[in-house]
Amino acid sequence: MSRASSDVAAVRSLVGFGAVSLVGTVFAFAGALAAMLAADPWLTLWALAPYPALVLLAKRFNAVVNQRAQATQEQLGVLSARVQEYIAGMSVVRAYTLEPRASADFASANREYLRRSLALARTQASFAPLMGLIAGVGTLVLLWAGGKAVVDGRLSLGALVAFNGYLAYLTWPTIALGWTLSIVRRGLTSMARIQEITGARSDEREEQIGLGTTMPLSTSMRPLWEPAPGTVFVGERDVTRLPRGALRVMLGYVPQEGFLFSRSIAENITLGREDADAARVREAAVAAGVADETDGFLAGFDTVVGERGLTLSGGQRQRVALARALVGRPPILVLDDPFASVDASKEEEIAGNLRALAQGRTVLLMTHRLRAAQLADRVVVLDAGRVVEQGRHEDLVGARGLYARLWRVQQLEEEIARA
Amino acid sequence: MPDVGHEFDDRLGRAFDRRLVARLWHAARPHRSLIAASLVLFPLISAVELAQPYLMKVAIDNHILKADWLGLTWIVALYVGVLVLLYALHWLEAYLMNLTGQRVIHDLRAALFGHLLRLEAAFFDRNPVGRLMTRVLGDVEAVSEAFTSGLFAVVADVITLAGVVGVMLWLDWHLALVTFSIVPALFVAAGYFRLRARDAYRRVRQRLAHLNGLLQESLQGMAVIQLFARERYEAERFREANGAYHRAVFASTSYDFFLYASVEALGSIAVAVLLWYGGGEIIAGAVSFGVLVAFIQYTNRFFLPIRDLGAKYTVMQSAMASSERIFGLLDRPPAIVSVGRATARDQESRAPAVELQGVWFAYEDEAWVLRDCSLSVAAGERVALVGPTGEGKSTIARLLNRSYEAQRGRVLVDGVDVREWNVARLRRHVGIIFQDTLLFTGTVEENLKLGVDGAVAPADLARAVETARAAAFVAALPRGLDEALGERGANVSHGQRQLLAIARALVYNPAVLVLDEATSSVDAESEALIREAMSGLLAGRTSLTIAHRLSTVQHADRILVLHRGRIHEEGSHAALLRRGGLYARLTELQAGPSAA
Lengths: 419, 596
Fold this sequence. Notes:
heterodimer; A: mainly alpha; ABC transporter transmembrane region fold; Rossmann fold; 2 domains; three-stranded parallel sheet; elongated; B: alpha/beta; 3 domains; six-stranded mixed sheet; 20 helices; 12 strands; 63% helix; 11% strand
């Protein structure tokens, strides 16, 4: 994210400030030079004589400033690494009473940062008044050479004053020249990087395709993790041949983490499906067991949740995500470990809902909590990406295989929790 | 309890807050001689700057028009002197302002970091590292800007403006008043566009915050978005927010440039008026040509500061917002302060080495982690604390060195309540060793001598490394004990890291050792080494081991089983296994599904 924004900012200065400044510089030089040459070519030469030296001087200063700015940045990096290290390791700092050492460490890095900042400031301080100096030297030469021309009667006083005006007009573009060029250079580099990213998308997609076969069915719906054709089917149809919209109508999917957007509950349930009206939203919420709580909120289904709104509990989030899957009335429901982040009492509650939801539906439940698997008509046991066992819960427990061992472990856990 | 402000904090209030400026002044006080020097420089610089147009006037009126070549050369020489002087003064001014700003923020950084070191552990649970780093390193930069290009620059501008007005009135008050006739229009235009620009800028910040929030959310929820095929819908939302931001930026920039352009235009009008009126006066002989030329140049200097006022306003606004956050953090008092003076007793005391008496503790509100928990470890005893994960085993360690404070009940060390201990002495007495510890940037030796004041004899260091079974791998490092560790240092494996932590504990040599065992597992070979090192560390020492893996606790004198916030079972390994309770189940569970 940071790289994206800094590159975008660099391009923005290129097309914004950089371009305007470059064009402005060209016009300023062209216009002022033409006017000056028309008035008096000889005096023009005199007045511009110090400019090349000053441009070189500015460039030299700029190089030193850049070098010192880099040294300052490096030290800032050191300083921030120290701060980060000590803040992140605060528990160790406390346990070993490292506060004095941390202070001293920070102080030395802080002092060095001050020293480098001041070295930079000294150079910058001599760089900034350069503009006044350039303007001054121009005026000086003009006053002396031009003044003599006026005294000698070769130049009118008006022309001299006009000349002074033109010179003042040229001061800023001269100073800005080096700066403008560096903005242009940086902007072009960033532009190239941005084009790299925007052009890379299609390749990434191809790379990911090979992974598909080991992915569970749920992920087949993700465009990035596509299974190989002829390996995953829904209702006898190859998922890779199905349009994704159609797949969504058939499959209701509930991911492990019920991710909610900072929007209203209704919007979170429809997630942009314009065909779902308020009645459909309510129906889905009722089925997911979240309707009553939602009615209890101040703004009901219009209550904004998430970062900028009401914070919901893990179980509530899970149920809103469930409602989101149900709003399209899918014939198949895929649940990716809905018990992953809920406690035992919530597990009971969600399992209860599932029983009702399974009416007239195909349900594929992925879980590591075997108590919930008891509800299923058939249990499929996966180990290292392969199906190792399948059958009814009771049969598998009797079979003394992996499932039976996992069942024993979970019983132990329950016993410990109950103790 | 309030925290220290959010990253996307988009409040941007006043550019001048008396309360905050007073505090900034207080922070700058130690450098007041520098500030005084700057304040002396300002009028000096203004005077020298304003001498330039005047010299031009003298050159034209007294020398060029009178064909006095020699006199002109003198003026030119004087002009050279003025230029050199001005350059030197400007350099001094810029350097002094930077010096002041940088020194003030150097002090502020030190104060902030020092304050963070005093704050209690609970504070760091609520405030992410990134946010605190922004306070210490980011916000202070905005404050330094207030010195270099905010407040001071405004003062310098005001002095220059006053000087320009004064000189113009002195040269020719008729002409000056004619020039100033444009000022009301200037103020109206500046005021109007400034106001609009400020509102527009506020909208920019709001919309940027909105855009950032949307972007962050979309990235986090990308899986859901793709799953539900809502890419186009989300892209549309983003496009709208992006467009709104673009329009706000455009409006804000437009006002800035309107202001800029209108000031420039008014400046040109002022010059035109000058030429028209002044030209007439010259013809009438009331004004000299040189005065008119000088006036044109003074007029330019008059408009410049007004044009740049907007930029300074913005600098001050963000400096105020940043200093509010900085002082907000500095004002937050530490919740745990060391008022006690108690230290370890000299004589052999009969009291338990550490003891919890009916302790209740919650990290948040009423979510009790410990409920009426009591335990004690006698001097010389080796005790292990076990229990299901997430039951607050490590919490007990944090209470013992007073990183956190119990809400109810008492925590005693050496028979004395921890609140009566001197905190530094307490932490020297009860050493909490995180076996899965982090290494600080520095050499191996520096990392081993953490928290030990004064020198450690090389022989002692070598013995500790030897006992911790770390000698072999340290010897294998290219520079041995002088090898650099940490972020940019050598790569140390997980197992080696734990050995170093054990060696560190041996060097620290606390009276009571509280060992928070590593949760992560290592390979079998390292495991064996670590176990040997641990028995070397625990030998003959009062210790409380917080065990996350049960394999290491069997040799403890006594095992405590923590469950539901209190001690559920206790006894030796064999006795607890015989009892067939929670400990027996935990042991079976840890063996895993493969062994069941």
